[in-house]
Amino acid sequence: MAAALLAVAGFVAGTAGTANAQPQSLYAKVVVIGVPGLTWFDVKSSPELTALVDQSHVGSITVKTAGPHTCPVDGWLTISAGTRAWGSVPDQACGELPTVADGKVQNWQTYVDRQAEHHTGAPLGRLAESRERVCGFGPGAAIALAHSNGTVENWTADLDPALLASPACGDAIIDAGAMPLREGRDEARKKVADLVAQARAADGWVLLVGISQLTATAHQEPLVAMQLPPDNGPRWLTSDSTRRPGLIQLTDVTATILRGEAKELDPAGQEQPGPLDGNEIGFGGDRHTDASAVIEDRLDTNERFEHPRPVLIAVVVTLVVAQLAALGWFLITRSRRARSTSEFTLLAEGGFFIAVFLSTATVWWRWPSPGLSLYFVVLAISAGFAAVARTVLKQWAALGVLLAAYLVLLVDGVLGTPLQFGSMFADGPVIGGRFYGFGNSTFATLAVAALVTAGWVAQRLLDRGQSRVKAALAVLAIGGLAIIVDGKPGWGTDFGGIIALTPAVLLMAWLTWRGSITLKALVGIGIAGVLAVSAVAFLDFLRPEDQRSHFGTFVARLLDGDVSDVLIRKLEMALAFFHTPAGWFMLAGVVLAMIATVWPDKVPFESYRRFYASRPMIRPTLLALSTCGLVGMLLNDAGVALPAIMTGFALPLLVAHLLAATVSPESHLVQESSSVDRHRQ
Residue 20 — pLDDT band, cuts 50, 70, 90? Predict the structure, then answer.
């Protein structure tokens, strides 16, 4: 495992983020050419578009908006608001863009009302209200440049090159039209290249971007983003909102047109105007000079984001089936080999929570059959960790897996989370939930690993005759390090995570020190946790607005009285799990697991009851895990999924440890020792 950690350290050091530079000076005219459905396969298939690659800063753009799909109307409304907007109707096909009649976008109020209905907080019309002399060409540009009342100025249905080049157009937005689904795609590609040439002739700082998917059921992938002419040689587009070379998001386009400055504009509903979701687009990384290599890199990147979620299901099913088969064999035969096989499959499931991250270091998306390669890579790493842990650590193999997970995630967090990006536990740029830092699944893994590691170290100190104070300090050190890495902006950047982990660590430290807890102490721990999290959020708020993470943005919204829409959206996401039987099944499993940590006598397994009483640190550790899961479930948008993931990581390793303990020589000594202690009491 040490060798694996060294390999990871070398990988993440080599892929750490690059500097995000801005052009030396934006051209006087920013010209955005939006093309719904423009993919990197289109660039590869078009000589005219391929020729632009070496003349551009390049990247991919994620077009996630507020709704479940990104139809063209969603994309253009998002450009208008500078924050994710909701334009299409769920479970319906993407409709035609609204027309302009008498200088006003038709049915504009419908889209305004839709923002209030879904609590998006998107102030439609912010781009037009914040920037003067912006010209628009085409139906999509009319939506992007409509004022808050739907009126449109400086707009024509078709491109007017003379108007585009005139001083009347300070900036411009051009709707190049959606790429055809079938026939006529070659002609559409040539049209896009021709529009780029006309925009450059107008002395524009041209930004060619995909705006949306083509249909509500389209295969979703990051779309094309190019900016030309390149400043200081062609490089990779990026922004502070993604912090990833080669990736920007749709709201960055609005922030770039507005140069990061937007007027406050009340959105529909009771919400207050939120800040721009995006940041100005810049560039970073190494120069590129080979168009074909750049295109293949972008296509490989799409493979990287396409396969993890489907393969995740396949891997989990494989591990669960193997686990159930092994446990069934053991229950029927009770043989030593069956027990050993069951222990191995349980350890492999624990190793899976490390493999989802380490698999990124293999660059599997560049292998033949990327999806199949990822499947076997994750299974191999999972089994490898199980085998190494069993061979080296014997009955303590489960603790070895947890320690490895703790160290891997700490290293990844400090180096900017390169292993998260495109992993099975990351939303990915298509979802657009998180471009950097720890997501909910990663936090759940780190929380279990940190709390159990802290409990194990504290127990070792107590076994060696050290005081409870030193053991409690060890809990604070190990748990505190996880809190810092998880919460620090630029590392884990996980606001919800530290809210859940901080009280769990404090509770565990208190129980380690005092052995029990009073209501007064419990209230004090809660207050201390709130103060610690609030201090981190406020310090982040003091940073410049374009450098704030989720912490500072939340404080800004709180001070502006604009948190209701955020809280409502998060609550809706948490409750959405109960729309299917799976959510209730997860809740039942989580409740049973928590009951087992509080009332071990209710558990109908004698081996667990003996284990619970065998060491003084087991109870504090299990109670801390339940506390973290409960707080996370109540205060996180992941809802019941967060403690369910924690249970999915911890429970197989606990069962593996119990299986190993029943056959290890040390286990008999533990049982005899605990029996003697109970007899003395």
Answer: low
Q: What is the pLDDT of residue 568?
A: 65
Asked if residue 180 has a cis previous peptide bond (ω within 30° of 0), the answer is no
- For the chain, what's the residue count? 681
Cα 70 to chain centroid distance, Å, stands at 19
- Per-residue pLDDT, averaged over 450-462, amounts to 96
Which of 128, 131, 25 shows the shortest CA–CA distance to 80? 128
Rounded CA-CA distance 84/277 in Å is 7
DSSP state at residue 547: G
The pair phi, psi for residue 485, each rounded to 5°, is: -65, -40
Helix-strand-coil split of the chain, %, nearest 5: 60, 5, 35
- How far is residue 533's CA from residue 530's CA, in Å, rounded to a whole number? 5
Burial class (CB within 10 angstroms; exposed 0-12, middle 13-18, buried 19+) of 127: buried
Residues 6 or more apart whose Cβ sits within 8 Å of residue 318? 379
Count other C-beta atoms under 10 Å from residue 558's C-beta. Answer: 13
**Are 249 and 241 a contacting pair, CB within 8 Å?**
yes
Q: How many CA atoms lie within 13 Å of 78's alpha carbon, on the beta-carbon side? A: 29
Neighbours of 3 (CB within 10 A): 8
CA distances from residue 425 to 11, 322, 417, 437 in whole angstroms, order as listed: 19, 22, 12, 12
Q: Give helix 440-463 / helix 495-514 axis angle, nearest 10°.
A: 20
β-sheet bridge partners, residue 104: 101, 151
Map 127-158 to HEC letters. HHHHCCCEEEECHHHHHHCCCCCCECCCEECC
Q: Give residue-wise pLDDT tens across range 567-579.
A: 666 667 667 777 7
Tokens representing 271? 């919400």
Tokens at 585, concatenated: 């099944």
